Amino acid sequence: MAEIGEINSNGAKLEWLYDGRIAAFCLENTSPTAIDTWYEASREVIQNWPETKPYLILERFTNLGLTPYNRQRAEELATLIPDHMDGRVAVVISRGVLGYGIRMFGANRLKALIPNITFEFFFEEAKALEWLEEAL
Description:
By secondary structure, the chain is α/β, with parallel strands linked by helices. Helices cover about 40% and strands about 25% of the residues. β4 (about 55-60), α2 (about 70-80) and β5 (about 85-90) form a beta-alpha-beta unit. The longest helix has 17 residues, at about 30-50.
């Protein structure tokens, strides 16, 4: 994989876990700047992911809700994932209406756009990581 560094700017973070085998994103807000930073980092990760490794992503979206803009960018990102790529995306969400909104969008729209990637939603990051570890 091309060397993609960690980012921590504009309300978005990317860090690498398990010796670079899991990309972990964190959005701290839903401002257009944060969403665009997340989108660009995610696009770079997708484009440089090695074909021989399962695509493993941790998305930390706690205390966030859906906006028309972040929905649009997530759908655009989904179209970049090649059909031959397989893997898992674990999404950590908050309990309550904000988290359930993200879950509904992911379970319905994103799963339809990316059937080759398995999405699961968690309230606890430790359980999300356990699930991703199973695919290492």
